[in-house]
């Protein structure tokens, strides 16, 4: 048993190999490397998909393994995006302002530069002053730290409040959803200092980088793939071993874990915060590829979609979450992009841009009803791994009592 | 033109009997002739005696004169200076009427007449003179119109005529109104301070907006600066720089009163420096170094020393100037007694106002609470009693609202369509609820989180379906006319009928729910099935049927709530989604499984939201944000809601 | 004999129904005690109070030599202090192997970070294997516990309880649904455990209680009706009336 845990879990190696092969293939086929078989915008879509896989991984950890159906992890994702977006927008505007002021008769003072940046960024919400939350926006290291700190602290405080009062199950889901709603409503206000419903834009331009978008998109693809790979290994490490036993125990029978002497609240808080940070990092990688972030991204519905991806992919197994996020988000892009041919029924034309959500909603119901293991369940057919399959009716009134087949 | 003129002149000459005969001896014409000079001169400064003479003449024709004059329809005949009024009959021709009789007397070429063109200043004077006649008019509507005009922009000149008209007024309502306006005008324009203070006493505690509008200008203040506090001004209070106003504001006051030199702004400084660039240097400082304020100040000082720029006030000078001057607020009203009385009266109003505003806010909160209650009551059945979490509940509300909309398209009578829409919405959502329970929820009873997700899938499908059918724009659900009005208690407290209707509907639902759960067979069976399905089944209850009916009922109520909410808000495909989180909050905060808890939860959330909005009325988004944060914290202290079940019944 | 747990004057009310009224109870170290009583006598609620699941309205619960007040502690802290509990129905983590179940229970630091960086030591491994052989599950270590039979699950749970090395074991109806042979095995396990620690067994089955050969406490309507040897209490006319007489 002294083998490194990666070797004990061959699925990790398979996953990393697939991820590496995928990244390499996309790189070689991309515009930046001459082959030009994949457009830059599609490279970005793939890079974004990798980030979505990472946040789905976080969701799987918190829901599939720890049993907390959080409807708030996309809020952390969005917050991460906002944090990096503040620096991107500040630094880029600073370059624009500096070049426009370079021709002035008298060189501008630092304060004048900052004021001009403020006017540029906040003109759209009728202001020119920097709100206090932009204090660190000029510093990349500080904002990178905030990517982790802000969502992490929010998750810590919220989680501490929620778990301490023993809110569980659907109540907790509703509470997390309320948190997400509160956050998005807050961000929608101009007074939030993050440009209200305009959000932050122009994030695809890296300040001080002259490389073309084709090259930058490949960089981000690599970064996203690296983050996903590291995130996968980290999550796999967390769920293996005793810690994994405990959190799965919490999922299955919280009270029992408590009577074993484990502080359930502490474990939940750890997982909640840890996954919030992963989600935030995924967001920080996603939005520079998307180019724009606005409060709509943080709306409660986004977090529910996240749960949908994980459920369709198969929760309680990490690769399931990745597959679910990749498949659903790519198929969704395909359908909503208008590339799917419409179906003409004679009396009505099914336009998939309009009908995709109906299809998604219904297929989601079907998956929940008929394939609770999701796509990942297919792998069980191959590996022959089955969960304990108990037959027969209960002997006694209690849920765990002896069943017919067992009464040998 | 001349060709047409001549026959007309000839005619009048030949006939000898002037076609345009004017009764030059009529009293009104004599009066006009007396004032002729002033009228023709038509100057704002001198016209007043003429208007006053006509107004106070007691002649019945005086009103006609003033009306025609102000309308610029008064003309004077060049030949004899007789005043007439006329309308243009065609090019170059006028239809002449006589002031004395008010009858048209014939046509005449306009070249024979000069038009009297009062300017807008004079028109205003004439109009206010006319008020006297309008106030005493036989026509009730005219009197009310005149009073409306007076309450908008009455002035000192109206006071005497208004007072005169009060005694002769027969209509009680109008008389009261006249007296009220007289008080208000006296407050603003009364002859002596004593009159004005007396008038203020009369309106103590009056909640009318007009009263405050009359009092507030008296208390309006302006900030001033002077070397010492002036004795001849009505000073509201003295200001201390740094405490009551910032030092920058104080210094700006000094500058605008020409008591101190202007301070150098950054922009002016930069411009001055820019104007003095010579050989890449400004005042001995290289231009490239001017990117800090310290260097800019140094360069500017050098320019001042060289006489190239205006000296700017230094910070010591600013401090000294602030020290040696007095800053204060003055009332525009010079009389201190009047301002004091006004402040006193206003204070008496404020307290009553606050009470009434609180009452109004409470009514608002109550109606919001009933909307939340309506939205949540269906959930109180499906989630609270059955424990099924239905994320598509909001879409059932939406379906109800759209049902109402469709019914209105078919039945144009709004009253009838609403009466039809309510049972129909119930039927539609009941059917949808039953279908959903049969097809989906039944299979997921032991897996609440998966119920949540599956019903969410249904929710997005239904929302998109609604978009596909009805489009993305909001559809109107028009309320019948009898629901349009407003129940106005006084100027502050009022509530629209539709909110009252929603409140009543919420009460009806509450009663219905309690009756259903406590008094009917279905309620008994529902409670039994919820607590112990197997035991209930062994007692001969069919749990499947009970669950189906109960779920359908909860959904049906959501449909009716949808009709009510649709009347109050716009019907869109997102209508339900807007309420779903709040509805769940309502149930959770109140305490699951208890209708009184839901009621309390809705009340608390409604009052809370309105309360927070009161602190920051411009921002309802912020109110919702803070409310949700409050709820999250509230759940810390009462995790099981306001009314919590304890012990074994609560489960775990 | 030193007192390990002392419960005195405890009352609990659920929505007006007094589940426990003025209950007093004490147990010393290395003592076996059986609690019997009709349904609704408050047996499970009593365990809930001791393990921190239910907070009583009044009364004191004092633990150990240092006289710690258990009412101020949460479930996890109480478990760490040395009170282990076995539920009425077997609650093991069915999705995990027997080994993982036992390893989770083995006495070690319970903090989340300690657990995250925990690597099973040779000693812990040995302890798990020893426990497995005690409860007769040595061959099932790598099986998922959900695949075990009902009796095996009961034993696994008792094994997990022992792995915690508690000073007081609270066992709720350990023999429910077991075959005769399984019952005997269970009796042996409990008697063995009671040599080094205090064991409280709640049981309906009189035969099972008789085999435990220990002092018996009879609960009725939330308070102690009688206490003593099984023969003593079964001779008590009150006990016969409320319990056995029915």
Automatic annotation (TrEMBL), chain A:
<feature type="transmembrane region" description="Helical">
    <location>
        <begin position="266"/>
        <end position="286"/>
    </location>
</feature>
<keyword id="KW-1003">Cell membrane</keyword>
<feature type="transmembrane region" description="Helical">
    <location>
        <begin position="71"/>
        <end position="92"/>
    </location>
</feature>
<feature type="transmembrane region" description="Helical">
    <location>
        <begin position="142"/>
        <end position="163"/>
    </location>
</feature>
<keyword id="KW-1133">Transmembrane helix</keyword>
<keyword id="KW-0812">Transmembrane</keyword>
<dbReference type="GO" id="GO:0015658">
    <property type="term" value="F:branched-chain amino acid transmembrane transporter activity"/>
</dbReference>
<dbReference type="InterPro" id="IPR043428">
    <property type="entry name" value="LivM-like"/>
</dbReference>
<dbReference type="InterPro" id="IPR017778">
    <property type="entry name" value="ABC_transptr_urea_perm_UrtC"/>
</dbReference>
<protein>
    <submittedName>
        <fullName>Urea ABC transporter permease subunit UrtC</fullName>
    </submittedName>
</protein>
<feature type="transmembrane region" description="Helical">
    <location>
        <begin position="355"/>
        <end position="375"/>
    </location>
</feature>
<keyword id="KW-0472">Membrane</keyword>
<feature type="transmembrane region" description="Helical">
    <location>
        <begin position="216"/>
        <end position="239"/>
    </location>
</feature>
<feature type="transmembrane region" description="Helical">
    <location>
        <begin position="45"/>
        <end position="65"/>
    </location>
</feature>
<dbReference type="Pfam" id="PF02653">
    <property type="entry name" value="BPD_transp_2"/>
</dbReference>
UniProtKB/TrEMBL annotation, chain B:
<protein>
    <submittedName>
        <fullName>Branched-chain amino acid ABC transporter permease</fullName>
    </submittedName>
</protein>
<comment type="similarity">
    <text>Belongs to the binding-protein-dependent transport system permease family. LivHM subfamily.</text>
</comment>
<feature type="transmembrane region" description="Helical">
    <location>
        <begin position="414"/>
        <end position="436"/>
    </location>
</feature>
<keyword id="KW-0732">Signal</keyword>
<keyword id="KW-0813">Transport</keyword>
<keyword id="KW-0029">Amino-acid transport</keyword>
<dbReference type="Pfam" id="PF02653">
    <property type="entry name" value="BPD_transp_2"/>
</dbReference>
<keyword id="KW-0812">Transmembrane</keyword>
<keyword id="KW-0472">Membrane</keyword>
<feature type="signal peptide">
    <location>
        <begin position="1"/>
        <end position="21"/>
    </location>
</feature>
<feature type="transmembrane region" description="Helical">
    <location>
        <begin position="580"/>
        <end position="608"/>
    </location>
</feature>
<feature type="transmembrane region" description="Helical">
    <location>
        <begin position="371"/>
        <end position="393"/>
    </location>
</feature>
<dbReference type="InterPro" id="IPR052157">
    <property type="entry name" value="BCAA_transport_permease"/>
</dbReference>
<dbReference type="InterPro" id="IPR017779">
    <property type="entry name" value="ABC_UrtB_bac"/>
</dbReference>
<dbReference type="GO" id="GO:0022857">
    <property type="term" value="F:transmembrane transporter activity"/>
</dbReference>
TrEMBL record, chain C:
<dbReference type="GO" id="GO:0005886">
    <property type="term" value="C:plasma membrane"/>
</dbReference>
<dbReference type="InterPro" id="IPR032823">
    <property type="entry name" value="BCA_ABC_TP_C"/>
</dbReference>
<keyword id="KW-0813">Transport</keyword>
<dbReference type="Pfam" id="PF00005">
    <property type="entry name" value="ABC_tran"/>
</dbReference>
<dbReference type="InterPro" id="IPR003439">
    <property type="entry name" value="ABC_transporter-like_ATP-bd"/>
</dbReference>
<protein>
    <submittedName>
        <fullName>ABC transporter ATP-binding protein</fullName>
    </submittedName>
</protein>
<feature type="domain" description="ABC transporter">
    <location>
        <begin position="5"/>
        <end position="246"/>
    </location>
</feature>
<dbReference type="InterPro" id="IPR051120">
    <property type="entry name" value="ABC_AA/LPS_Transport"/>
</dbReference>
<keyword id="KW-0067">ATP-binding</keyword>
<dbReference type="GO" id="GO:0016887">
    <property type="term" value="F:ATP hydrolysis activity"/>
</dbReference>
<dbReference type="GO" id="GO:0005524">
    <property type="term" value="F:ATP binding"/>
</dbReference>
<keyword id="KW-0547">Nucleotide-binding</keyword>
<dbReference type="InterPro" id="IPR017781">
    <property type="entry name" value="ABC_transptr_urea_ATP-bd_UrtD"/>
</dbReference>
<dbReference type="InterPro" id="IPR003593">
    <property type="entry name" value="AAA+_ATPase"/>
</dbReference>
<dbReference type="Pfam" id="PF12399">
    <property type="entry name" value="BCA_ABC_TP_C"/>
</dbReference>
């Amino acid at each position: 048993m002294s083998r490194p845990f990666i070797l004990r879990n061959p699925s990790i190696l398979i996953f990393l190999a697939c991820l590496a092969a995928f990244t390499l293939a996309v790189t070689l086929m991309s515009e930046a490397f001459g082959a030009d078989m994949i457009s830059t915008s599609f490279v970005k879509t793939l890079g974004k998909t990798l980030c979505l896989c990472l946040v789905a991984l976080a969701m799987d950890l918190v829901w599939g393994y720890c049993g907390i159906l959080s409807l708030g992890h996309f809020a952390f994702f969005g917050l991460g995006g906002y944090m990096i977006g503040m620096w991107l927008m500040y630094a880029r505007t600073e370059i624009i302002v500096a070049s426009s002021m370079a021709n002035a008769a008298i060189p501008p003072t630092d304060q004048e530069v900052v004021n001009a940046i403020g006017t540029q960024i906040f003109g759209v919400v009728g202001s020119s002053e920097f709100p206090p939350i932009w204090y660190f926006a000029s510093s990349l290291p500080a904002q990178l730290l905030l990517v982790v700190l802000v969502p992490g602290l929010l998750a810590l405080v919220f989680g501490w409040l929620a778990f301490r009062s023993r809110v569980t199950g659907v109540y907790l889901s509703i509470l997390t959803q309320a948190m997400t709603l509160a956050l998005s409503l807050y961000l929608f206000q101009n007074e939030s200092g993050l440009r209200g419903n305009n959000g932050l834009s122009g994030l695809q331009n890296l300040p001080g980088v002259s490389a073309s978008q084709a090259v930058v998109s490949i960089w981000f693809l690599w970064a996203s793939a690296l983050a996903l790979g590291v995130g996968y290994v980290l999550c796999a490490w967390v769920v293996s071993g005793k810690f994994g036993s405990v959190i799965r125990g919490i999922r299955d029978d919280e009270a029992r874990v408590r009577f074993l002497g484990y502080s359930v609240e502490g474990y939940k808080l750890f997982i909640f915060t840890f996954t919030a940070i992963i989600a935030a990092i995924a967001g920080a990688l996603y939005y520079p590829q998307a180019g724009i972030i606005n409060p709509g991204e943080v709306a409660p519905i986004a977090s529910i979609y996240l749960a949908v991806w994980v459920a369709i992919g198969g929760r309680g197994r990490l690769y399931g979450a990745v597959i679910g996020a990749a498949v659903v988000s790519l198929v969704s892009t395909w359908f909503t992009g208008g590339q799917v041919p419409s179906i003409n029924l004679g009396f009505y034309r099914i336009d998939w841009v309009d009908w995709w959500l109906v299809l998604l909603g219904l297929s989601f119901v079907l998956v929940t009803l008929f394939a609770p293991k999701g796509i990942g369940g297919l792998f069980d057919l191959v590996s022959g791994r089955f969960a304990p399959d108990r037959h027969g009716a209960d002997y006694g009134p209690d849920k765990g009592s002896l069943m017919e087949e067992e009464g040998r | 033109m001349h060709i047409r003129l001549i026959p007309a002149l000839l005619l009048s000459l030949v006939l000898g009997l002037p076609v345009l005969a004017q009764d030059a001896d009529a009293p009104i014409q004599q009066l006009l002739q007396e004032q002729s000079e002033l009228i023709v001169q038509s100057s704002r400064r001198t016209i007043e005696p003429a208007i006053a003479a006509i107004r106070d003449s007691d002649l019945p024709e005086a009103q006609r004169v003033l009306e025609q004059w102000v309308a610029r329809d008064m003309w004077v005949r060049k030949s004899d200076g007789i005043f007439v009024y006329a309308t243009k009959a065609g090019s170059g021709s006028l239809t002449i009427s006589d002031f004395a009789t008010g009858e048209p007397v014939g046509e005449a070429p306009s070249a024979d007449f000069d038009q009297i063109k009062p300017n807008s200043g004079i028109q205003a004077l004439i109009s206010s003179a006319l008020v006297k006649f309008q106030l005493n008019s036989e026509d009730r509507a005219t009197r009310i119109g005149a009073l409306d005009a007076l309450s908008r922009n009455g002035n000192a000149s109206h006071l005497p005529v208004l007072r005169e008209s009060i005694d002769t007024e027969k209509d009680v309502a109008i008389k009261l109104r006249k007296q009220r306006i007289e008080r208000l005008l006296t407050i603003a324009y009364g002859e002596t301070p004593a009159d004005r203070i007396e008038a203020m006493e009369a309106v103590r505690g009056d909640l009318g907006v007009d009263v405050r509008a009359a009092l507030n200008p008296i208390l309006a203040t302006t900030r001033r600066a002077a070397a010492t506090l002036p004795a001849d001004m009505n000073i509201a209070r003295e200001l201390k720089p740094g405490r009551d106003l910032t030092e920058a504001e104080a210094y700006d006051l000094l500058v605008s009163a020409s008591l101190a030199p202007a301070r150098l702004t950054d922009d002016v400084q930069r411009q001055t420096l820019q104007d003095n660039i010579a050989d890449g240097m400004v005042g001995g400082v290289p231009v490239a170094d001017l990117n800090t304020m310290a260097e800019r100040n140094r360069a500017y000082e050098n320019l001042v020393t060289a006489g190239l720029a205006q000296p700017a006030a230094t910070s010591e000078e600013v401090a000294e100037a602030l020290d040696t001057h007095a800053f204060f607020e003055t009332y525009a009203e010079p009389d201190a007694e009047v301002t004091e009385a006004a402040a006193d009266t206003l204070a008496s109003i404020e307290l009553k106002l606050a009470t009434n505003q609180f009452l109004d806010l409470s009514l608002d909160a109550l109606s919001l609470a009933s909307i939340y209650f309506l939205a949540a009551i269906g959930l109180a059945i499906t989630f609270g009693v059955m424990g099924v979490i239905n994320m598509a509940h909001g879409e059932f509300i939406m379906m109800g609202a759209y049902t109402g909309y469709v019914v209105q398209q078919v039945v144009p009578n709004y009253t009838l369509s609403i009466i039809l829409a309510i049972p129909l919405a119930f039927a539609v959502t009941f059917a949808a609820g039953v279908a959903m329970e049969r097809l989906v929820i039944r299979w997921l009873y032991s897996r609440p989180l998966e119920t949540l997700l599956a019903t969410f899938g249904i929710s997005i499908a239904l929302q998109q379906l609604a978009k596909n059918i009805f489009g993305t724009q909001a559809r109107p659900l028009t309320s019948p006319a009898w629901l349009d009005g407003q129940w106005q208690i006084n100027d502050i407290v009022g509530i629209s009928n539709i909110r009252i209707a929603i409140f009543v509907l919420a009460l009806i639902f509450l009663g219905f729910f309690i009756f259903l759960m406590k008094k009917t067979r279905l309620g008994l069976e529902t409670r039994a099935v919820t607590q112990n399905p197997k035991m209930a089944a062994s007692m001969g209850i069919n749990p499947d049927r009970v669950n189906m009916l109960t779920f359908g009922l909860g959904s049906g109520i959501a449909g009716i709530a949808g009709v009510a909410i649709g009347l109050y808000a716009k019907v869109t495909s997102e209508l339900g989604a807007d309420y779903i989180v709040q509805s769940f909050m309502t149930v959770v905060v109140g305490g699951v499984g208890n209708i009184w808890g839901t009621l309390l939860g809705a009340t608390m959330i409604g009052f809370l939201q309105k309360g927070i909005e009161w602190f920051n009325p411009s921002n309802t988004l912020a109110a919702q944000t803070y409310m949700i944060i409050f709820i999250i914290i509230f759940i810390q202290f009462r995790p099981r809601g306001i009314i919590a079940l304890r012990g074994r019944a609560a489960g775990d | 004999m030193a007192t390990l747990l002392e419960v005195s004057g405890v009352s609990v009310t659920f929505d007006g129904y007094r589940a426990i009224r003025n209950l007093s109870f004490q147990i010393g170290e290395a003592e076996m005690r059986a609690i019997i009583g009709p349904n609704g006598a408050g047996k499970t609620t009593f365990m809930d109070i001791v393990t921190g699941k239910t907070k009583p309205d009044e009364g004191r619960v004092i633990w150990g030599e240092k006289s710690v007040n258990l009412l101020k502690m949460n479930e996890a802290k109480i478990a760490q202090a040395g009170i282990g509990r076995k539920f009425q129905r077997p609650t093991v983590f069915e999705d995990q192997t027997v080994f993982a179940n036992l390893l989770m229970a083995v006495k070690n630091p319970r903090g989340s970070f300690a657990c995250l960086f925990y690597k099973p030591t040779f000693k812990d491994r040995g302890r798990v294997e020893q426990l497995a052989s005690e409860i007769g599950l040595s061959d099932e270590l790598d099986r998922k516990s959900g695949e075990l039979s009902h009796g095996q699950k009961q034993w696994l749970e008792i094994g997990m309880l022992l792995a915690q090395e508690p000073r007081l074991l609270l066992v709720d109806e350990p023999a429910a649904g077991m075959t005769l042979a399984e019952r005997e095995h269970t009796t042996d396990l409990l008697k063995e455990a009671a040599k080094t620690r205090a064991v409280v067994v709640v049981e309906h089955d009189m035969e099972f209680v008789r085999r435990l050969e220990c002092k018996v406490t009879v609960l009725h309507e939330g308070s102690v009706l009688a206490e003593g040897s099984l023969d003593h209490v079964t001779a008590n006319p009150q006990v016969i009336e409320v319990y056995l007489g029915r």
